[in-house]
Amino acid sequence: MAKIIGIVGKPNCGKSTFFNAATMAGAEIANYPFTTIDANQGMGYVRVECACKSLGVTCSPKHGSCHNGTRLVPIELLDVAGLVPGAHEGKGLGNQFLDNLMSADALIHIIDTAGATDAEGKPCTPGEHNPLDDVKFLEEEIDLWFLSLLKKDWNKLARELQQLKKDAGKELANRFSGLKISEPLIIKAARHSNLNLDEPANWDDAGLLKFASKLRELSKPILLSCNKCDIPEAEKNLKPLEETGIPTIPTCADAELALRRAGEKELIKYFPGDSDFETSSKLGEKQAKGLDFIKETVLKKFGNTGVQQSLDKTTFEMLDLIPVFPVEDEGKYTDKNGNVLPDVHLVPKGTTARELAYKIHTDIGDKFICAIDARTKMKLGADHELKSSDVIKISCSK
């Protein structure tokens, strides 16, 4: 199943701007709470080193693009309704937010680092609101939502599990299956919470909350995209956010969106995630001034706008995905139509050759014979674990 990254945060923090910058999808942006009502879905792109570089070939991607050996690979993004305190009780668009969040595998939390919006997303004087409060409340709201799902008929379920000696890990995984929570995650969360899955009837309220929090941490890892970092008041808040221990990226979604739109109009040459851009003669004076401002206040200061870096870090470090290039001709690195390195699959680290075959197509997995490493021409068994940037041919029976 393809991984999905949820773009989350309170209203008016820059979520939709981030989403638009990452996808160029055109989600509505406005300076008032709950602009996003229905979840926006779209494709963002992460940067990987294309195998074409080391193989010395010119690739022909079916999806995304390749620029000087850097490949843009699609990944699904979900921009959900803004979250406000009390969401787990249905406040604001809380129920809708949490329902949308179920399909996400990791979360990019867009933070108004300048403190220019209050807890409910209403504009205030920059520096007036402490963005650390936003970090805490989002985690707490999701924890309390998980807890409410866990406690539904809990006493009855716990007694039944214990008396009938049922597998509590399996039963709880069934209860949380809609949240993409597997039995191994249940077992790991219980162990980290010092709870015995053989004695669920002995779990008290504090233990249940600790378990819910650990489940959230394991199943929905969070990255802080510290937005509006170009506003002076944001600077003093960056270090405290970094000190939370949660991965953080200084971000200016407005700048990234401006650069990508200018690139579309061929006013500049800009590759997502780069630290600079080239201007063209088509630029007007006002446009040139605006782009110079972005260069001075964002690119030179932070090295990039942070949007691409947020996507890349979430994908490769938090979700632990690796790129793999499947081909049908291991000698020419092509598909049956002669396209060179046409596809890239983002798969979890530890994925086996047979699992890749199933990802390509169920029939290919069912008829799997072996895989071939296109670089070394060596045959690989079904249980062989793939490495980042492997180029793989799957051999299967007719």
What would you note in describing this structure?
A hairpin with a 5-residue loop joins β12 and β13. Strands 1, 2, 3, 4, 5, 6 and 7 form a seven-stranded mixed beta sheet that branches. With 398 residues, the chain is an alpha/beta fold. About 3% of the residues have low confidence. It is built from 14 helices and 14 strands. It has three domains: 195 residues, P-loop containing nucleotide triphosphate hydrolases (Rossmann fold); 54 residues, no CATH class; 75 residues, Ubiquitin-like (UB roll) (Roll), CATH 3.10.20.30.
- Work out the strand percent: 15-25%
Q: How would you state the average pLDDT, rounded?
A: 90
Give the helices and strands as they follow along the chain.
EHEHEEHEHHHHHEHEHEEHHEEHHEEE
> How many domains in all?
3
Number of strands: 14
CATH architecture of the largest domain: 3-Layer(aba) Sandwich
What best-fitting shape do the alpha-carbon axes yield? flat
Q: Into which percent range does the helicity of residues fall?
A: 25-40%
How many helix segments? 14
CATH superfamily of the largest domain: P-loop containing nucleotide triphosphate hydrolases
CATH class value of the largest domain: Alpha Beta
Give the termini separation. Answer: 26 Å
Low-confidence stretches: 26-37
Characterize the main sheet.
7 strands, mixed
CATH topology of the largest domain: Rossmann fold
C-alpha Rg, in Å? 23 Å
Structural class, from helix and strand content? Answer: alpha/beta
